[in-house]
Amino acid sequence: MLSKSCIYALRSIVFIAHHTTTEFKIGIKEIARELELPAHYLGKILQQLTKHSIIQSVKGPNGGFSIDEKSQKIKLITIIGVIDGLDFFNSCGFGLKECSKEHPCPLHDNFKIYRDGLLDLFSSKSILDMVSKIEDGNAFIQNANLYETGKKSIKKY
Amino acid sequence: MLSKSCIYALRSIVFIAHHTTTEFKIGIKEIARELELPAHYLGKILQQLTKHSIIQSVKGPNGGFSIDEKSQKIKLITIIGVIDGLDFFNSCGFGLKECSKEHPCPLHDNFKIYRDGLLDLFSSKSILDMVSKIEDGNAFIQNANLYETGKKSIKKY
DNA sequence: ATAATAAAAGACCTGCATATCTTTTATTAT
DNA sequence: ATAATAAAAGATATGCAGGTCTTTTATTAT
């Protein structure tokens, strides 16, 4: 639904928002390491986001990426629009060229509910909303450490 | 969400169910023409479906594809499982390896609603359900003819 | 000034979904 | 038997998302 690029973008932005201030920036390598993403590829994506002023970057020593207060209020849908475009939210689940009230596919109404629901979701949630959840300990943007204590994953020996 | 292959499969099956009986079969070329799909590629897909006994095929003159009564009751999710697999319905929208109640991504609950909803939808609807809608004139599986009379698409000159 | 750092930019590679083309096999009609 | 038909099967091509590698540019610290 969302491309990998888009997912990488969203997770990185949230990570940057969580870990930086205008003074303390964070580099591609560290983001890539912490989120387990391919560093060079991530570079391209962050470039795009920088060009669109969704995040800020500084080159050279102590450089890296950060995100200002204002940008943290950006809604997820904006980022999706920049990376993937918004065609998905107006497309037919069965691939019909035109799928509308006048010429619906057999699941038009059903698909529409979910597509519209996701659109509403992405249109209502901001970067900051994600970060808050993480800071409250109610969500994660990094992968679970499989060897963490108390995780069901292990415990079988 | 569904791959092109899967969409081609679903549309073709519905088309076959709508247009054939055990006596009157339909060939790849005609299906491809009517649904505007690449014929040879479609062949491969129909092969898979035949192997899985979701449709039936006969070679030679007057041969082609058909679908028996019993197979028309097959649910869409079965076809999706054959062509795409069902990983999607158990995956994280943010790409986390583990995304669960214990280690949720920031939109875990929201994504889950839509994923589960789609799963229920595909699990409840059969080929026959699709065909019925079409035969009742309440849905289409072929693309709209842009030059059809009374379609908003044109009418601007 | 120089060296070190880190993003930006550009060129290139890879794998897979998608698509095409050709040959083979099964079936039917003559 | 033979020719025609149509799916099956196999080999090959294409396009693009995803990923890597190298060079350039901007910035900072010494």
Can you give a write-up of this model?
Two copies of one chain form a homodimer. Chain A has 157 residues and is mainly alpha-helical. The first copy, chain A, has one domain: Arc Repressor Mutant, subunit A, CATH 1.10.10.10. Helix content of chain A is 48%, strand content 4%. The first copy, chain A, is built from seven helices and two strands. The first copy, chain A, has helices at residues 4-19, 28-35, 39-51, 69-72, 76-83, 108-124, 127-135; strands at residues 56-58, 64-66. Chain A has a two-stranded antiparallel sheet with strand order 1-2. In chain A, strand 1 and strand 2 form a beta hairpin. In chain A, helix 1 (4-19) packs across helix 3 (39-51). Chain A starts with a helix and ends in a 22-residue tail after the last helix. Mean pLDDT of chain A is 93; it is low at 149-157. Chains A and B meet through helix 1, helix 6 and helix 7 of A and helix 1, helix 6 and helix 7 of B. The first copy, chain A, binds a DNA duplex (30 and 30 nucleotides) through helix 3.
